[in-house]
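User: For documentation purposes, I need each entry recorded in a consistent format: the amino acid sequence on its own, followed directly by the corresponding structure tokens. There are two entries in this batch. Please keep commentary to a minimum and don't merge the entries.

Assistant: Recorded as requested. Entry 1:
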Amino acid sequence: MEVAFCSLVRREKGEQLLRDIGKQAEFVDVDIDDATALRAILDGVDLVVHAAGPFQCREQCNVLEAAIVSKTAYIDVCDGREYSQRAKGLNEKAKAAGIPAITTAGIFPGISNVMAAELVHLAKDESSGSGLKPEHLRFYYFTAGSGGAGPTILATSFLLLGEEVIAYRKGEKVVRQPYSGPVTVDFGKAVGKRTVYLLNLPEVASAHEILGVPNVSARFGTAPAIWNWAMVAVAKFVPQELLGNRATIDTLVRLSDPLVRALDGAVGELMSMRVDLECVNGRKSIGLFTHSNLSICVGVATAAFVRAVLEGSTEPGVWFPEEPGGIAVQARPLLLERASVGTLNFVMNRAPWMVEGDPKEIGFGIYIP
């Protein structure tokens, strides 16, 4: 079994990774905008993981197109709404080639999409015959500092601050300012209450369309609080045309990176995501996923998607993680189990009060907030 991993790394770092991984790996320097070179590298490969972000502002899905031509299974860790929609637009080509592909298959989006799909599935199962429908779906994300992801997540964050936020209210698309609408969310043990802000993330549109939930939004926050304040200021005062310019973003990343790395050492690399589902009768359920290191859990989550695709859980075509064609309904629990290895806290389909704060057991499995 041979898997190719496309990522933005310098040769020195790539060679260091080879020493860490061992002789079964090979480092190849390739331009992902060179279609011929991509097809040559993917020839004979079973699956390619596209992690060469940021995905915002990229006009072409070159790696996916090369994977289709070379008949190589594909996943990416895209967190850009427009890029993910372009990838989905290649669905028929992938089907014709017999190639399974999943876009947005990282941690968030990715595992968060599957958590949302499973919450909706479980709610419908529990209310079978009652006509109960999901009404609100909310994605909440938190990382301390850069979560250990460094320049890539910095660049992605700046690029997202230049995009208007797409959310859904009563089935209609609504537009909001980036990094606006702060709310305080309880992420449970190890994280506690954090303030999160609206961002334009691809799982909002895909979950609305695929899961049929009329009200969907996604929010993100970081620590220390000064970074949130700085991002609010950037979103408000830096023109969107500058934030959509890669040269400007590269400059901002170079200026910010040393300070971010210094603070990462102080605040750690903790991450948490909470997915909230509310049905029309007021029934509420949540999923919660907390890990001490964002970089590690992204790798574990991506590996879980890779394994699922190689095991045959994905049909030919290009899919979002919450689509049954991407991850079969019966395969979701195993995917979540694999992705949650090493977590500090992972729960699914619980009432919010069971996770918020520290509920006390009063006996016979009965808890109070």
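Entry 2:
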Amino acid sequence: MLKITEFLKTNFVNRAILLLLFSMVVYFLCMDVAFYFHNQSRTYTFISSKEEHTYSPFKDITMKLAMSDHPNHYFYLLTAEKFDEATNFSGVFFFVTPNMISVLHTFVSILCGKLFSSDSLNMRRLGVLLFVLRTWLDALDGVVFRARVKKRHVFFSQRGSSGYFVDAVADVISGVAMSIGLIIYLSRSWAKRHTELLPKSKSPENGSTTYTPNGSHQVVSKRRIILKVAVFGIMILLAAGLWDRFHDLYHHLLESPKASVEQQGRELVVLKSSMMWIIIWFWRILNAPELIEMMLAAILVDRVWEFLSWIIYAGPIAVCLLSVITEIHYHTVSSFIGKIPTVT
């Protein structure tokens, strides 16, 4: 709380950033409430309609959409869909493929990594803005793909397709670029900022420099910085893999077009249950894109080290605990519906 108070005292830009972040959280929570109640009125389990209509975050609900992170569902995807509806980008620029857009946002993410390594807070904040653009382009390539295959608002993962592979590689490169940028920043620029206030010493064994971060008495080496960022990266990969696994399992369990009438009724019961939506909501918070958005917020408020210091402990525990609960829930509802659980 003290650090937030100090941050607010600095200048108008910092206060505006905190107000923006607070407003986003309130907006996401309000949209979640509306999304939950809209889901309670749903009468379908499987989306097969190709009906063209204006995009809404509350229509055509699939497990992939329901488990998506808040920024993607309520901002990136929403604005990308509206952009395509307003400009007919996918039709006018027919020669621009989804994979071309993926390659473009990969180069943008590499530029972001460079900006994240800067000593200047303003440059790192510029990197955040460009990363927002990168994520928006990531949403746009999905919009273009669905428009080209005549399934504009049908949100399912296209496993096994070239686009699925290209998108995954682009996301990995994006994460690596961010990690390298943060390692360079924390090991060089961040230590340099506190040089006049912090005691420095040379290790008699290897000659490496150590310093004390943010006025604390803890000595931090460059090796530890790299380790923390690496653990954060591994946590992102773990969250991404588990999210993809469970979203796919629930998709086949609850959105099967071959389900009997009785099974469809039970699927609706599960989809509307409180436990299902508690699990969905926590996966929205603990999936990889949302964790990356949290890191972007930490960069904006210049609290990267503090964020890393707790997320690398709390994050993996939360993801693993949620995975265990989700696994138990999946097998329980499989028995309730009368389907054999998929083993992956």
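Summary note for entry 2:
The beta strands are 201-202, 209-210.
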